[in-house]
């Protein structure tokens, strides 16, 4: 090993990083450092800038300004390969192993030991792989297929791979999200032993108890800036959350003026004890006409899965669901649409739009049967007029309904997705991250649209990772934590601290509140 | 990102201008094959005085009627994001079956030909069901059908041609003419049939619900499913239509050759795919039209005919065909990039 620097000098130090994407300042004047033999926790809300920071460290993105010093040398890695070669390895939330290859070949993928030109020295490959695995104390056979090991083991195989690359810095992005309690313990043990070998670790997590169990220091980010760097011993969970959320909560929609909710109105949607596998359990709530029910929670808390179950993409296994008092079984999207439930999915481009088709075709795709002449041909003139009406009503900025959706901005694309469902006149509209990747001006328009739809008597379920959005737009808020309802709140009576505590499971919430509504 | 937003100053005029540009680009994109076709015609006309001869031109049309029909067939499945490799074999089987029914079993052609078409459509539907229910990739399902249908043809014919020279219906189908009422123009029957197929398929794709849904499905299957589009039904329909059209092509080939040849239309599927791709039909689905695929078929026909007149040896012909395919698709890609830029 070749570092001869002072023991306490940081192994990695980033200074004054700036990074902007269209419409977003992702990083502002960010300083970040990690020492050898240290576990640094990096925390922040979704969108605080953690991923951008890690992408720069890993050579995926280049910053607009700033400097990187790594083991005494200046300069940003130009690619993930370069970062890896320099000793910086990243272990992603989603595993990056080839599941059908054996462990050894995964470890040495792309850099197999050679035995003459074009030939792989298999004996050496498996021997070295096995050494690497044994060093970590893993009960893993280098010749076995990756798929056959449980997720926790696979995670450790990734760690072994990173170490076999002579990694001096390991970034672990939510490594515990798919692990059970015992597996987490094992992982932490390994992390501590890596630390004692002088390896630096960056641990990204939302789980406070884990952070305090393992981290030496904690870097807290908010809105693209570093709020504080402190030894973990000087902090507690409440303080970390307070700093993550910040005091000032932005106002996404000019507050007040909630659509009136008639308390005695018949609920549009009633859900009782809904559950599917480990994704979510015991979900019960009601949605009244005119309500915008915000669903908050961390990534992986089961929010999207709940939405998919309500819309029948991946149906619930247990529980009951009523729409306007009538029991419904939702087994596929067709059932949901007939019952009057529509979903604006999180993955706008992959699941919400036909990118290569026109604005008009996208708008009317769900209601084509209304425009049939002689059961076969479409009345194009009427189709077009209806599409134009929606374009006008939702203020979609497009030169013509013939324009391909691909060429619209994110906000306008989102309006087209919403228009597709409005044409169907749903009773319940579910929006999953409705303003993700949309610039500020268009966000306000989407909020206004949601309000006016609610005012017309629709029930809206809005899933969002942005607390200001949840607090500013919702008339009521549900928080999910690890697949369960962790609480129900009124925006006027809560704040982001409380929501974040519920979302991280930091404070137990009285059991009765879960089913309120 | 905010391209379209900027132009809201003078809505009606700006909208009309944008509309015109969108239409022009779309036409250009689909019409590129037409331009290449024109260029080829010009080239051959200048090099050979026999090329523009009316008999040569109608010959090109008659010879390539079957190719045009199968090009439309594969375009249908390609638009839904699939592919149909079995069209050549299904065509051969439909031809052999119809001839066998007429010659060996004495069925009236008015019954035998529709029966053969129904069987061909059924084979296509089997492809569709294998894709939809069996979860087979379209390439694999239709590759299997390619083998099965060819084997069935050989089995049914015993490997020998079935002659149909004296059956009037076939003579009409292969070599006959129809005088168009009102125009007084005589059109060869196979050309008329191919033209009708192209017209019908174009109308259905453009103006019918299933047509629009087929494009949607090819553009994004996931979005289509979430929008309530009956994805499975449309896929089966696409493969069944492809089978039916392959059957039509098979009857045309049989009639033209005066016999059902067990080895007819070997490799026709690849020519048809080339034709569709020349016509701008995307192998990834969601893009393309029936009429431009048909023009792609004609382009291949014109190229072959012209090269024959110029006495280019058949080895070289294949190489030139390959080069034209590459050039046309590269041009198409160039145009497509242009479109996105203008759109913004």
Total strand count of chain B, please?
A: 4
Structural class given helices, strands, pairing of chain A?
Answer: alpha/beta
Multimerization status: heterodimer
What share of residues of chain A is helical?
25-40%
Which class of secondary structure composition applies to the elements of chain B?
mainly alpha
Placed side by side, the strands forming the largest sheet of chain B appear as 1-4
Q: Please tally the β strands of chain A and state the result.
A: 22
| SS field, number of helical segments of chain A | 17
- Rg result of chain B: 21 Å
Q: Note the main sheet of chain A.
A: 6 strands, mixed
**From the alpha-carbon coordinates, what is the Rg of chain A to the nearest angstrom?**
25 Å
User: What is the averaged pLDDT score of chain A?
Assistant: 85
Distance between the termini of chain B: 8 Å
| CATH architect. name of chain B | Orthogonal Bundle
Q: Tell me the major beta sheet of chain B.
A: 2 strands, antiparallel
Question: What can be said about this structure in brief?
Answer:
The complex is a heterodimer of chains A (517) and B (344). In chain A, helix 8 packs across helix 17. Chain A has 17 helices and 22 strands.
3D structure, described in words:
The complex is a heterodimer of chains A (517) and B (344). Chain A has four domains: 9-87 and 168-247, P-loop containing nucleotide triphosphate hydrolases (Rossmann fold, 3-Layer(aba) Sandwich), CATH 3.40.50.300; 96-167, no CATH class; 261-340 and 426-517, Rossmann fold, CATH 3.40.50.300; 357-424, no CATH class. Chain A contains 17 helices and 22 strands. Chain A has helices spanning 50-57, 80-86, 103-107, 122-135, 151-164, 181-196, 208-214, 237-245, 303-311, 333-339, 348-352, 359-364, 380-393, 410-422, 440-455, 467-473, 496-504, and strands at residues 10-21, 24-35, 39-43, 65-70, 73-74, 88-91, 169-173, 200-204, 217-222, 225-231, 269-276, 280-287, 292-297, 318-323, 326-327, 341-344, 372-373, 377-378, 428-432, 459-463, 476-481, 484-489. In chain A, the strands form five sheets. In chain A, strands 6-7-8-3-9-10 form a six-stranded mixed β-sheet, sandwiched between helices. A six-stranded mixed β-sheet of chain A has the order 16-19-20-13-21-22, with helices on both faces. In chain A, strands 2-1-4-5 form a four-stranded antiparallel β-sheet, covered by helices on one side. In chain A, helix 8 (237-245) packs across helix 17. The termini of chain A are far apart. The relative contact order of chain A is 0.11. By secondary structure, chain B is an all-alpha fold. Chain B has a single domain, classed as Orthogonal Bundle (ABC transporter involved in vitamin B12 uptake, BtuC), CATH 1.10.3470. The chains are: A alpha/beta (517), B mainly alpha (344).
């Amino acid at each position: 090993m070749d570092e001869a620097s002072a023991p306490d000098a940081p192994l990695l130090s980033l200074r004054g990083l700036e990074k902007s994407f269209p419409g977003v300042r992702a990083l502002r004047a960010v300083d970040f450092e990690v020492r050898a033999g240290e576990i640094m926790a990096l925390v922040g809300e979704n969108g605080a800038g953690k991923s951008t920071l890690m992408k720069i460290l890993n050579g995926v993105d280049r910053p607009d300004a700033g400097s990187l010093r790594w083991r005494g040398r200046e300069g940003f890695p130009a690619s993930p390969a370069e970062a890896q070669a320099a000793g910086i390895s990243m272990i992603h939330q989603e595993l990056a192993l080839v599941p059908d290859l054996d462990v050894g070949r995964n470890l040495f993928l792309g850099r197999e030991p050679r035995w003459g030109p074009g030939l792989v020295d298999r004996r050496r490959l498996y021997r070295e792989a096995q050494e690497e695995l044994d060093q970590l104390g893993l009960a893993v056979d280098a010749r076995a297929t990756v798929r056959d090991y449980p997720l926790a083991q696979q995670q450790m195989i990734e760690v072994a791979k990173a170490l076999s690359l002579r990694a001096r810095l390991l970034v672990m992005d939510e490594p515990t999200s798919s692990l059970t309690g015992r597996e987490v313990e094992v992982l932490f043990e390994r992390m501590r032993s890596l630390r004692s070998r002088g390896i630096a670790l960056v641990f990204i997590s939302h789980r406070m108890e884990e952070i305090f169990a393992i981290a030496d220091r904690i870097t807290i980010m908010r809105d693209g800036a570093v709020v504080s760097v402190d030894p973990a011993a000087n902090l507690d969970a409440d303080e970390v959350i307070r700093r993550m959320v910040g005091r000032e909560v932005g106002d996404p929609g000019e507050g007040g003026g909630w659509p009136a909710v008639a308390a005695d109105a018949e609920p549009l949607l009633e859900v009782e004890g809904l559950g599917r596998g480990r994704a979510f359990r015991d979900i019960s709530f009601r949605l009244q006409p005119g309500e915008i029910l915000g669903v908050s929670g961390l990534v992986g808390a089961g929010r999207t899965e709940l939405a998919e179950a309500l819309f029948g993409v991946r149906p619930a296994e247990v529980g009951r669901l009523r729409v306007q008092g009538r029991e419904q079984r939702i087994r596929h999207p067709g059932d949901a649409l007939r019952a009057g439930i529509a979903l604006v999915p999180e993955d706008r481009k992959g699941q919400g739009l036909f990118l290569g088709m026109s604005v008009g075709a996208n708008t009317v795709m769900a209601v084509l049967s209304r425009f049939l002449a002689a059961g076969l041909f479409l009345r194009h003139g009427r189709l077009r007029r209806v599409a134009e009406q929606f374009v006008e009503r939702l203020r979609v900025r497009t030169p013509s309904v013939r324009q391909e959706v691909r060429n619209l901005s994110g906000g306008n694309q989102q309006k087209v997705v919403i228009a597709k469902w409005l044409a169907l006149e749903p009773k319940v509209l579910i929006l999953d991250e409705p303003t993700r990747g949309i610039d500020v001006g268009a966000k306000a328009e989407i909020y206004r649209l949601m309000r006016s739809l609610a005012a017309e008597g629709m029930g809206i379920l809005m899933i969002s990772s942005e607390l200001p959005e949840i607090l500013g737009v919702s008339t009521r808020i549900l928080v999910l934590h690890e697949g369960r309802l962790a609480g129900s709140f009124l925006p006027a009576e809560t704040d982001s601290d409380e929501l974040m505590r519920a979302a991280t499971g930091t404070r137990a919430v009285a059991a009765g509140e879960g089913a309120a509504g | 990102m905010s391209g379209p937003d900027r132009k809201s100053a003078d809505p009606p005029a700006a909208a009309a201008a944008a509309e015109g540009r969108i239409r022009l680009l779309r036409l250009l994109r689909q019409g590129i094959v037409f331009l290449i076709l024109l260029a080829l015609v010009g080239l051959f006309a200048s090099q050979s005085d026999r090329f523009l001869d009316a008999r040569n031109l109608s010959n090109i049309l008659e010879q390539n009627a079957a190719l045009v029909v199968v090009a439309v067939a594969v375009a249908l499945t390609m638009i839904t994001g699939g592919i149909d490799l079995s069209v050549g074999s299904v065509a051969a089987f439909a031809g052999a079956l119809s001839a066998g029914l007429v010659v060996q079993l004495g069925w009236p052609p008015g019954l035998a030909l529709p029966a053969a078409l129904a069987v061909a459509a059924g084979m296509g539907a089997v492809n569709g069901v294998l894709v939809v229910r069996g979860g087979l990739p379209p390439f694999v399902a239709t590759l299997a059908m390619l083998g099965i249908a060819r084997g069935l043809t050989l089995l049914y014919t015993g490997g020998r041609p079935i002659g149909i020279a004296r059956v009037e219906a076939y003579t009409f189908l292969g070599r006959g003419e129809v005088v168009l009422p009102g125009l007084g123009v005589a059109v060869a029957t196979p050309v008329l049939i191919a033209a009708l197929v192209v017209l019908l398929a174009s109308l259905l794709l453009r103006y019918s619900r299933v047509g629009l849904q087929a494009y949607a499905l090819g553009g994004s299957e996931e979005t289509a499913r979430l929008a309530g589009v009956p994805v499975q039904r449309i896929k089966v329909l696409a493969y069944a239509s492809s089978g039916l059209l392959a059957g039509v092509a098979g009857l045309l080939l049989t009639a033209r050759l005066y016999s059902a040849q067990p080895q007819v239309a070997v490799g026709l599927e690849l020519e048809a795919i080339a034709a569709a791709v020349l016509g701008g039909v995307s192998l990834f689905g969601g893009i393309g039209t029936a009429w431009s695929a048909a023009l792609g078929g004609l382009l291949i026909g014109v190229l072959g005919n012209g090269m024959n007149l110029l006495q280019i040896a058949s080895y070289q012909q294949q190489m030139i065909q390959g080069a034209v395919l590459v050039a046309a698709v590269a041009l198409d890609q160039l145009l497509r990039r242009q479109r996105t830029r203008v759109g913004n």
